[in-house]
Design a protein that fits this description.
22 helices; single chain; six-stranded mixed β-sheet; 668 residues; globular
Length: 668
């Protein structure tokens, strides 16, 4: 018997499943994700499935982990403090290419150096300036990103800078050429910055997960799901955590296909923080050729073509006070639901809510609470942030008792961005408690918080809602509407024949909305989703039937929809891809761009063969290191030529080698 253990760590819950012989789910369980020590949530979920199944930990043949923590961190703008070493570019490039936004105020050094398009050195690397920068700016930096112009043609300066950083700081270093073989230095730099920002978070998760498996007696190796749905080793994930963005959503697609057998469908996975939508076409999820996009950032990471939106069961509820009618919007930031924080600190939460309900006017911060995430590094903070952290301490507090000036709101936002503080407020999860759809946490506290929010005044002077029940239904209806729009955007984006407007505009267009409402006038308008939708996530059964009705499609809700990510984690394959290029800097000269530097050959076929052998060796070694067996190699060649004076001339070739195999498991 083969016993597979899948674990998914999400923003709210950690899920675990046991699958027997890759055919049957024999147990599944959930445990709250514990940010301060992720091992608590991981251990709770694993213990629960072992108890349910009656299996022994030592019988587990393979363990695999998927996670939405990296995705959530980028959507919410969280992560560690980083520094960028930007080689061969100009200061203005930081502004032009979105790097300032990715850095979020963290330090950057624009350094002389870099190579030209042919791989030759353009300018010597200024190592003295690098050393001076490290002496003054390395304190509190959790990871460095290094990006050099044309590093994919010659990575020598990135590698030299990385060696210097490692010698002087011992901090982890991400080189852009190791994340992508494609040109576009600024985009590679953004990817490297995000990778460096995630290193500490993912390293803690994997380390604590491995510790927990050992403590429980699981001796099988642990795998991690990449953003393209394939598996990698835990050690590989620690080096390249950026490849785990969209890990959880990618695993959910693999799980959806395994559970339903669908050939063509939209898969929509609602979690606590995000809703992730992807298309399964001909039984396979598509890979995004432009690189994974998460929140505002477009990366160069190969991942499932997916739209990730900051919309989930724990999304912040925003009141729209402008206009006579008012209204609500949800997300993109996640809050700790009031019902959850009240279950953990009932006396503090209920006492504060009761006092606020008895006040004649609803205060600005009423119905909100704050707590610190203990045990995380707090280096690189300003005085105001340190003061707030000290004031919060180890307890849950009403937000109004912590914020004393307007300027402290900015400091609180920075603490939330760093993941050091969590804010609690009204969420769709609380609305579900009030409506009686969920009874997991403290429904009474949720009702009190929604009552407070319902009393707030809109532009007409009227209350937002007559009572907590009415407001709860408004919140759930808003979630239905935003989910419907998200699915429509995805459908328009995936249409084979493109429309003339962007998907976001098409989804909201008056004709689309009238068509969904089956308009009948002089014109008859009808719009419907023409493929099935697979609804995944613990709360899918609560929210998605109404979405299916709006879209007039079959909404499939699999039996184990709530743990699809954990299922997908253990039914995937190990796949490693390596890409490289051959250029022709002069007639009769063909240049292979390798990690060790450029090499020239007199013939194109000879150069392509050298590159193919090098890439195959790298991909195979990576697949073997990840624990793959029965490895198959697939090579793709993209050769560009030009016609010059009636003669076809070689311009450039890109080779991609894919090594794929099943993960090695111990037989029970």
């Amino acid at each position: 018997m083969t016993l597979l253990l899948g674990v998914d760590t999400g923003g709210t819950y950690t899920d675990a499943v046991l699958i027997r012989d890759e055919k049957e789910v024999i147990a599944s369980a959930k445990s709250l994700t514990t940010r301060a020590d992720l091992a608590i949530g991981v251990g709770g979920a694993i213990r629960a499935v072992l108890e349910q199944s009656g299996c022994v930990a030592a019988d587990v043949s393979m363990a695999a982990l998927s996670t939405t923590l990296a995705t959530n961190a980028l959507v919410e703008g969280q992560g560690g403090r980083v520094a960028l070493i930007y080689i061969g570019f100009g200061e203005a490039d930081l502004e032009r290419h979105g790097l300032k936004d990715a850095l979020k105020g963290d330090p950057a050094l624009v350094l002389a150096g870099g190579h030209n398009h042919a791989g030759g050195e353009a300018t010597p690397l200024d190592t003295e300036a690098l050393r001076a920068f490290l002496e003054t700016h390395s304190a509190g930096v959790s990871g460095f990103a290094v990006a050099s112009v044309f590093a994919t043609r010659n990575p020598a300066h990135e590698l030299e800078a990385a060696r210097t950083i490692s010698e002087m700081t011992q901090a982890p270093v991400t080189c852009s050429h190791q994340l992508s073989a494609k040109l576009n230095g600024p985009k590679r730099a953004v990817t490297a910055v995000l990778n460096a920002r995630l290193i500490g978070m993912i390293d803690r998760l994997i380390g604590r997960a491995q510790d927990t498996l050992v403590e429980l007696g699981v001796t099988a190796p642990m795998m991690v799901v990449r953003g393209d749905g394939a598996l990698m080793s835990a050690e590989q994930a620690r080096e390249r955590p950026i490849e785990t963005i969209l890990s959880g959503p990618a695993a959910s697609i693999v799980g959806a296909r395994w559970m339903t057998g669908v050939e063509n469908a939209l898969v929509s996975d609602i979690g606590g923080t995000t809703t992730d939508v992807a298309l399964i076409r001909d039984g396979k999820p598509a890979i995004d050729p432009a690189g994974a996009r998460v929140g505002e950032f477009r990366t160069m990471v190969e991942a499932v073509a997916m739209r990730t939106t900051g919309l989930g069961g724990d999304s912040q509820v925003h009141m729209q006070s402008s206009g006579l009618q008012g209204g609500l919007t949800l997300g993109p930031r996640r809050l700790v639901p009031i019902s959850l924080i009240a279950a953990e600190a009932p006396e503090v939460v209920h006492a504060a809510l009761d006092k606020q309900l008895n006040a004649p006017v609803v205060g600005e911060h009423d119905g909100k609470f704050v707590r610190a995430v203990l045990g995380l590094p707090a280096a690189g903070l300003g005085e105001r942030e340190h003061t707030l952290l000290g004031r919060i301490g180890t307890q849950v507090h009403p937000l109004g008792a912590i914020l004393r000036t307007r300027m402290e709101q900015g400091a609180l936002g920075r603490l939330v961005d760093r993941g050091l503080v969590q804010v609690s407020g009204v969420t769709p999860s609380d609305a579900s408690h009030v409506l009686g759809r969920v009874a997991a946490w403290d429904g009474a506290a949720a009702e009190k918080a929604l009552t407070l929010l319902a009393r707030r005044r809109v532009g007409s002077g009227e209350c937002l809602a007559p009572d907590a029940q009415a407001l709860a239904q408004m919140i759930v209806d808003q979630l239905t509407e935003q989910t419907t729009l998200t699915l429509l955007e995805s459908a328009f984006a995936e249409e084979a024949q493109a429309f003339d407007l962007p998907p976001a505009q098409l989804a909201r267009h008056v004709l689309t909305q009238r068509g969904l409402a089956s308009h009948r006038g002089i014109l008859a308008l009808e719009i419907a989703m023409n493929i099935d939708v697979v609804g995944l996530g613990a709360s899918a059964s609560s929210y998605y039937p109404a979405v299916g009705e709006q879209l007039k499609c079959d909404m499939l809700l699999p039996e184990h929809a709530g743990v699809a990510n954990a299922i997908g984690a253990v039914v995937g394959r190990v796949t490693m891809r390596r890409s490289g290029s051959v250029t022709s800097p002069a007639e009769g000269k063909f240049r292979v761009h390798l990690e060790t530097g450029p090499q020239d050959y007199p013939g194109s076929e000879e150069a392509l063969a050298v590159l193919e052998r090098a890439l195959e060796a790298e991909a195979r070694a990576e697949a073997e290191a990840a624990g793959a067996e029965d490895i198959h190699i697939h090579v793709t060649r993209d050769i560009r030529t030009a016609e010059v004076e009636a003669r076809e001339v070689f311009v450039e070739a890109t080779l991609t080698v894919e090594a794929s195999g099943r993960p090695r498991v111990a037989k029970g």
